[in-house]
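lol forgot to send this yesterday, sorry. struct tokens for the thing we talked abt
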């Protein structure tokens, strides 16, 4: 008796699948080392050499005498009605502005900075809401005085004319471009001197500039002269005003290249 064993022959589709699996296994085996984890560097340290530099700072300051003053004043009135508060404040501020113009101050240098109307309340009668007792009208202006010899008169004349508040006087330099340029040159000179000193001490020399960064310090103006709820001054005594001095300061941070 004989036994027959039949093995089916793979079709074309089966052969192609088997071939694909074989190729995939071969590629996986040959590329396995490339798939293992390894560190990645953004910059190859062996391909770059850091620049040799020295970093210093320099400061230049120019002292100036202010030539302009900004005067902040206004009218603050309490009246029983809105109409009375508005009317009386308008009359007073009109006189204040007229006093300023009489000193030769131009319209462009008189600017309204605030106009407000607020009710005033009585909180002591125990009612809720509190009872309105009147209205407070405020009208404020900022005045640029370009002739400092007239600043004292501007204060005295406006208070006499009807201004009820003097909120401050600040001094400044109208055009400080030239002073900034001078301070900038002084700052760079100081930075270069520092760099040369450091380089000489290290036995090297400066070969150029890699970067420059500039910062401007806030200008320190004289402390404002201020009054609150001012009363009319004695006409025989003028208000003394001292402008003092102010500083223009420039600071630079410079990175020098070393030869």
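and heres what i got for the seq, position by position
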């Amino acid at each position: 008796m004989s036994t027959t064993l039949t093995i089916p022959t793979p079709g074309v589709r089966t052969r192609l699948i088997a071939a694909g699996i074989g190729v995939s296994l071969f590629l996986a085996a040959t590329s396995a080392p490339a798939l293992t984890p390894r560190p990645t560097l953004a910059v190859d340290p062996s391909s770059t050499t850091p620049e040799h530099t020295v970093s210093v700072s320099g400061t230049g300051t120019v002292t100036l005498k202010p030539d302009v003053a900004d005067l902040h004043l206004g009218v603050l009135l309490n009246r029983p009605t809105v109409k009375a508060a508005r009317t009386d404040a308008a009359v007073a501020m009109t006189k204040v502005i007229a006093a300023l113009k009489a000193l030769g101050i131009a319209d462009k240098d008189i600017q309204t900075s605030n106009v407000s109307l607020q009710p005033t309340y009585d909180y002591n009668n125990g009612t809720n809401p509190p009872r309105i007792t009147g209205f407070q009208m405020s009208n404020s202006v900022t005045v640029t005085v370009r002739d400092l010899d007239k600043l004292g008169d501007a204060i005295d004349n406006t208070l006499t004319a009807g201004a009820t508040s003097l909120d401050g006087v600040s001094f400044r330099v109208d055009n400080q471009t030239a002073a900034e340029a001078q301070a900038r040159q002084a700052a760079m000179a100081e930075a270069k001197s520092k760099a040369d000193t450091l380089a000489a001490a290290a036995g090297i020399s400066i070969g150029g500039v890699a970067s420059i960064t500039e910062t401007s310090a806030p200008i320190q103006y004289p402390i404002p002269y201020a009054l609150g709820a001012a009363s009319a001054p004695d006409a025989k005594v003028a208000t003394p005003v001292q402008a003092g001095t102010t500083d223009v300061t420039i600071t630079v941070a410079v990175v020098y290249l070393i030869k």
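The chain has two domains: 53-63+178-217+252-258, 66-174+222-241. anyway ping me if u want another try
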